[in-house]
Amino acid sequence: MAENALVNERRGWQLSNFKLGTQFTVFLMLVFIGGLIVSGVILYRTLEQRAEDEVASKGLILIQTMNSVRNYTSTQVNPLLAPDLATADAFIPQTVPAFSAREVFEHLRTNEQYRNFFYKEATLNPTNLRDQADEFETALVQRFRGDPALREQSGFRTSHGETLFYSARPLAIGAESCLVCHSTPDAAPDSLIATYGSEHGFGWMLNEVVAAQIIYVPASDVLNSARSAFVLIMVIVVATFALALLLINALLRRSVVQPVEQMGLYAQGLSDGDITAAEVESEGIKGVARRGDELGQSARVFLNMARERFAREQGLKKQVQELRIQIDEVKKHQQVKEIVESEYFQELQNKVKDMRAARDNK
Ligand code: HEC
Question: Residues near ligand 1 with C-beta < 6 Å?
Fold first, then answer.
């Protein structure tokens, strides 16, 4: 009864009630899935961060390039054209740093690699209303204004329902020459007023941060590269694990489960008595006994036990046989004695005696 209760108790939904291979698989799967979730999250964050950093640094280089273009226009093109500008009826946009920067960027965008990049000089009070900073960009400019040590900001934003990654740098009025066109309408060339009006783009001060130079990239471009790298790495990791799991299972089957099963069979045979000495000496169990590990040790102990048992059985059989022979002899003696002591035999002997005496008397 008590034993049955123990067996029933053991048959619950416990890991130890399943096959060894299943136990290993379940355990390894749990470890793997846990590891995969933790490392997956870390890996994804890292890849995403790297992709962002890469785009941000690309943006930085582009902004620096735009600043070089601006600088070139201010120092080389503008001085050449300034006399013409003062007298020309039509405004000459080639004299404007912002114009050259935008033109160069548009050329850059004809490259497939930069097709999705956008450049904007988001300005609080712009000459060209197209450059007007929206709410989000205004906040960026204000932050640059409030913290002169802040040289860069980057991150994600949504604009017209699309998520964009941005990389921004402050743009300050770095030279007196800028103020010719951006201080007061009176100081600016007439053709500029004629083209852009006198309402916007004036009242700027030297060293004042008036705008943020921003490079925009669709977030999907940034995240897709991180995602495809992530998927690739995960596929490799999962495939490696699946292979490891298969190999571990095969190894377990070959070097643990099969030998243990074999030993179990022999032990069962030994206890039921339907195994012969020759079968115990067969290659199966001896192969296990040759192993240097714990299973080999158990198999050797088992072999010794089985041999001792067969030897003892052999001895017992011999003893029984000897005893039988002894018993037979004792029986024979007994029978002889019975015959000798029987009345008939006595009479026979007496007759023999009488006959001998009669013969001697003759
Ligand atoms: C010859 C006149 C002129 C000079 C000099 C000049 N700008 Fe401009 N600036 C303009 C005009 C015109 C625009 C609008 C161009 C366009 O249509 O995009 C402009 C645009 C800009 C913009 C983009 C925002 C906006 O107002 O539309 C910034 C920022 C800017 N200028 C800064 C500067 C700085 C800094 C300097 C000095 C290095 C400078 N400008 C020199 C005429 C000038």
Answer: 74, 78, 95-99, 121, 123, 126-128, 131, 171, 173, 175, 177-178, 180-182, 192, 196, 201, 210-211
Confidence check: pLDDT of 177 > 50: yes
Report the sign of the C-alpha dihedral through residues 258, 260, 263, 264, in that order.
negative
Cα dihedral 148, 150, 152, 156 in deg (nearest 10): -120
In terms of Cα–Cα distance, which of 201, 130, 137 is closest to 168? Answer: 137
Mutate to test the pocket of ligand 1, among 78, 85, 134, 181 (most ligand atoms within 8 A of CB): 181
Dist CA 118 CA 106 (whole Å): 9
What atom of ligand 1 comes closest to residue 102's alpha carbon? 18
Q: pLDDT-derived band of residue 1, with 50, 70 and 90 as boundaries? A: very low
Which residues touch 106 (CB under 8 Å, ≥6 apart)? Answer: none
pLDDT, tens only, 36-54: 999 999 999 999 999 999 9
Pick the atom of ligand 1 nearest to 201's CA: 26
What's the full length of the chain, in residues? 362
CB 100 within 8 A of CB 94: yes
Higher pLDDT, residue 255 or 46: 46
| Ligand 1 atom nearest to 91, measured from its CA | 12
5/229: higher pLDDT: 229
Dump pLDDT digits (tens) for 274-328. 777 777 777 778 888 888 888 889 889 988 988 898 899 899 999 999 999 999 9
Nearest to 165 by CA among 108, 106, 215: 215
Ligand 1 atom at minimum distance from 127 CA = 26
